[in-house]
Design a protein that fits this description.
Blueprint: E1 2-11, E2 14-24, E3 29-34, H1 40-48, E4 55-60, E5 63-64, H2 70-75, E6 78-81, H3 93-99, H4 111-125, H5 127-131, H6 142-154, E7 160-164, H7 172-187, E8 192-195, H8 199-205, E9 208-213, E10 216-221, H9 223-226, H10 230-236
Parallel strand pairs: 3-8, 3-9, 6-7, 7-8
Antiparallel strand pairs: 1-2, 1-4, 4-5, 9-10
Helix pairs in contact: 3-6, 6-7
C-alpha cells in the first residue's frame, strides 16, 4: 500500500534521510523506531509531503507521490497524525473532527449530514470524545488530544495513516490507553505506519518493524526477531 525507495530529504542544505527504504502492506501495522535525531519524523514528513524529498520514490497504492504537496497526497488517501498532536485549540472537538473530512466531502450544503456516519465511527472508537464534542480542543488532556488527532485523521477515511510519536509527553497510564487505541485500529484493518519512542510497546503491536539510525534503515524484520536481536536489545529494549 505504501512503498518508500531510496528516500533522501532534509532541511536547508542539511540532509537527514540518506536512502530510506521501507514498505507498509495493506492492513498491516509497521513500526519505525530509533534514537532521537535518527530521522524518523523527517521520514514521516517527507512521505506525507510536508517537506519535499530531494531524491527517491514514495508510492501510495502503486502511484508515485514523491514531490506532491501534502494536500494532494492527503486527497489520494494518506492521513498524517503529527508529532505533538497539533489540534486546533479554540475549536470544538467536533469541529476538529470535521476538518479531517473536509477534503473528501462537499462543501457547505450537506457536509455535516454526510459526515455524521464517520463521526459516529470515531465516537464509537473514542467515547470520551463524544462526551466532549462541544468542548474546546485546547482544554482537553494530552491523552484526549491524542485521541482527537487520531480521530481527525480517521475522518479522512485514509488508505494509510502515519502516526508520529503518539505517546509523546503523556503519563504512563495514558500511554497504555494510546496503545490500546492503536490495537483497536489494527483490529479495524487500518494500514498504519507508527513512529514511537517506546520501542517495546511499538514492537508488541506491530506486524513488522524498521530500526532507523543516522537517516538510514539499519535493521528490519518481524518484531519477534528484533526483540531477540542483540543490537536492538542493547540500544532500544534494554
Amino acid at each position: 500500500m505504501l512503498k518508500v525507495e531510496n528516500l533522501h530529504a532534509g532541511y536547508g542544505g542539511a540532509e537527514v534521510l540518506n536512502g530510506v527504504n521501507l514498505e507498509v502492506r495493506e492492513g498491516a501495522v509497521v513500526a519505525l523506531i530509533g534514537a532521537n535525531g535518527a530521522g524518523k519524523t523527517t521520514a514521516m514528513r517527507a512521505i506525507s509531503g510536508l517537506i519535499k524529498p530531494s531524491a527517491g520514490v514514495v508510492s501510495l497504492a502503486g502511484k508515485s507521490v514523491a514531490g506532491y504537496s501534502a494536500a494532494r497526497i492527503a486527497r489520494l488517501g494518506l492521513a498524517h497524525s503529527p508529532e505533538g498532536r497539533k489540534v486546533f485549540g479554540p475549536l470544538s472537538v467536533e469541529d476538529n473532527l470535521l476538518l479531517g473530512a473536509y477534503r473528501r466531502l462537499p462543501g457547505f450544503f450537506g457536509f455535516k449530514k454526510k459526515a455524521e456516519a464517520d463521526l459516529d465511527k470515531v465516537y464509537a472508537l473514542f467515547p470520551r470524545l463524544r462526551e466532549r464534542r462541544a468542548q474546546a480542543a485546547g482544554t482537553l488532556s494530552g491523552g484526549e488530544q491524542q485521541m482527537l488527532a487520531i480521530g481527525r485523521a480517521l475522518m479522512a477515511q485514509p488508505r494509510v495513516m502515519l502516526l508520529d510519536e503518539p505517546s509523546m509527553g503523556l503519563a504512563p497510564v495514558i500511554v497504555q490507553e494510546v496503545f490500546a487505541t492503536i490495537r483497536r485500529l489494527k483490529e479495524a484493518g487500518i494500514t498504519l505506519l507508527l513512529v514511537e519512542q517506546f520501542a517495546r510497546s511499538a514492537l508488541e503491536v506491530a506486524d513488522y518493524a524498521y530500526v532507523m539510525e543516522r537517516g538510514r534503515i539499519a535493521v528490519a524484520g518481524a518484531p519477534a526477531d528484533l526483540q531477540k536481536d542483540e543490537r536492538v536489545l542493547a540500544a532500544y529494549l534494554g
